[in-house]
Write a sequence for this structure.
């Protein structure tokens, strides 16, 4: 066997790693580029603010946008307080015992359950058992359980980045444990918790499988009136028009994909930039 | 007054902390309840090893072997692409790239993770699928191969992020020790850093596999959805997840077909539970060292 010169083999390997990185990154850029290039021409104020026409082959996608926003907003309102409380429990109260290990294992597994299984669960429990029907609230509850592990994990990260000395200083002044958390730990962890929340909003806005049988409707001719209404949703709408409707004008499909993609990417970028900003500003 | 308020709030916090367990048990219990009712009527072994998935013919046949093989084929294909690329990218980002480049690359990887699977599915449908059809001269591009390519894109961010974490947590002394002995930087990375980070990297691969097995919308749009035993990676396949998503809408609530989809959900739940549990063991091992 030929023994390669170590210097040469280092150069060769670095080149290989670089190529792999390019292979990993290029698809993101290509996907975004394809969607923007083909979809940008349809985007107009009218497209964003009018109802679909001619069996969805014309008009706008307003009900899908409103539907997605209402499901996602409901889901975050449910999951954020629960998730932050759970994170506080794990980071501030939990002892290192069997119970805590089980909680952590449960979170890991909750995070790994396939999205379509959450859809099944939501259908069985919220739609059928609790008789909420296919509705905004059933979809939101389903998504909120799915998002819970993500919120807990990011909030926990934010809480644990607050130095221990902050808590000690407050506790040594005779402040109770909860008051310390409330007035010292939480305010310092807030930026981290919020960026985590924005990232998870971005993530669930694009989820299709969990709302497939719990909230989404093929077509609803009006905007939702109550949380018990069925709604159209952007990701589901994109699925429908790209696979179920033959002869759908291509530019409308791309336009819908672009709106969804921009919604998700804008939120993710905001979260990423906010995180960098807060990290720089942190004084400890 | 303040003290009792504290107690109330701390109780609420404790309950929220326990909710994760409650939900895992609830999900499992619910899938099990519906799945068990199905197994009583149809039988577990016939379900797992049956070759034919004809849920609406008379008599109906609910064998999911072809769906399991479909899921496995797509997953293995996606991993063959995503694992080497993912690990090499993680190495590049954490060991080689200068700091400015590193931050940009990390943000791009994070953005990639944020792209909804339905968008990836759609782009795959209009780009990769016709490409696969033309290059390999197939009658249809909707194949396990096209699905594996698109799923690899979705597994890469998971693998990169977690491997990168593992690589970065390898103590600096290890690298310094190797470099001081005269090893080149690459020899250090390959023989020392990679070895020390291995448990974390294995966890990353497991979590990537978990993500791919559970992926639904993109595979449903790209893999062709033919429920038969695949003979090659260029066959159309149907995965377990796609079956649930595609057929739930047309079932009678509470009927055999409806329950059979919950039984598939149960199988998926158990698979992902094992995958995530194993990943967690490896991550724990890394921390204990």
């Amino acid at each position: 066997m030929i023994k390669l010169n170590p210097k040469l083999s280092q150069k060769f390997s670095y080149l290989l790693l670089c190529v792999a990185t390019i292979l990993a990154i290029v698809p993101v850029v290509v996907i975004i580029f394809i969607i923007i290039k083909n979809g940008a021409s349809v985007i107009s104020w009218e497209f964003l603010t009018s109802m679909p026409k001619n069996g969805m082959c014309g008009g706008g996608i307003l009900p899908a946008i409103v539907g997605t926003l209402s499901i996602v907003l409901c889901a975050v309102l449910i999951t954020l307080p629960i998730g932050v409380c759970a994170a506080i429990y794990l980071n501030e109260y939990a002892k290192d015992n069997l119970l805590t290990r089980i909680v952590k294992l449960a979170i890991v597994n909750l995070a790994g359950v396939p999205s379509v299984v959450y859809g099944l669960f939501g259908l069985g429990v919220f739609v059928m058992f609790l008789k909420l029907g296919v509705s905004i609230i059933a979809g939101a509850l389903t998504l909120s359980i799915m998002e819970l592990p993500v919120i807990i994990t990011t909030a926990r990260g934010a809480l644990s980045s607050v130095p221990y000395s902050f808590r000690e200083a407050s506790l040594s002044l005779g402040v109770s444990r909860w008051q310390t958390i409330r007035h010292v730990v939480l305010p310092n962890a807030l930026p981290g918790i919020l960026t985590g929340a924005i990232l998870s909003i971005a993530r669930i806005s694009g989820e299709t499988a969990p709302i497939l049988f719990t909230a989404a409707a093929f077509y609803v001719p009006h905007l939702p009136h109550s949380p018990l209404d069925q709604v159209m949703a952007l990701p589901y709408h994109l699925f429908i028009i790209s696979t179920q409707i033959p002869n759908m004008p291509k530019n409308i499909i791309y336009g819908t994909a672009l709106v969804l993609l921009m919604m998700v990417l804008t939120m993710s970028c905001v979260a990423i930039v906010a995180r960098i900003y807060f990290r720089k500003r942190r004084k400890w | 007054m303040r003290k009792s308020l504290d107690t109330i709030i701390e109780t609420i916090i404790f309950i929220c902390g326990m909710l994760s367990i409650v939900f895992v048990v609830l999900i499992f219990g619910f899938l099990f309840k519906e799945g068990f009712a199905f197994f009583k009527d149809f039988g577990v072994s016939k379900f797992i090893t049956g070759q034919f998935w004809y849920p609406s013919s008379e008599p109906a046949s609910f064998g999911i072997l072809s769906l399991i093989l479909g899921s496995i084929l797509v997953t293995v294909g996606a991993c063959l692409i995503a694992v080497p690329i993912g690990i090499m990218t993680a190495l590049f980002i954490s060991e080689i790239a200068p700091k400015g480049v590193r931050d940009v690359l990390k943000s791009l990887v994070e953005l990639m993770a944020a792209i909804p699977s339905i968008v990836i599915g759609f782009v795959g449908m209009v780009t990769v699928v016709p490409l696969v059809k033309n290059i390999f001269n197939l009658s249809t591009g909707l194949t396990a191969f096209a699905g594996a390519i698109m799923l690899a894109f979705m597994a890469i961010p998971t693998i990169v992020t977690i491997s990168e974490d593992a690589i970065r947590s390898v103590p600096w002394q290890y690298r310094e020790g190797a470099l001081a002995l005269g090893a080149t930087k690459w020899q250090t990375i390959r023989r020392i850093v990679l070895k020390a980070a291995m448990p974390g990297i294995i966890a990353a691969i497991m979590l990537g596999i978990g993500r791919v097995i559970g992926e639904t919308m993109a595979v449903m749009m790209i893999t062709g959805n033919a429920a038969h035993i695949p003979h090659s990676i260029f066959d159309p396949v149907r995965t377990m997840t796609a079956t649930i998503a595609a057929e739930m809408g047309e079932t009678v609530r509470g009927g055999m077909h409806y329950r059979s989809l919950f039984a598939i959900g149960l199988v998926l739940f158990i698979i992902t539970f094992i995958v995530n549990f194993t990943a967690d063991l490896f991550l724990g091992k890394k921390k204990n060292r």
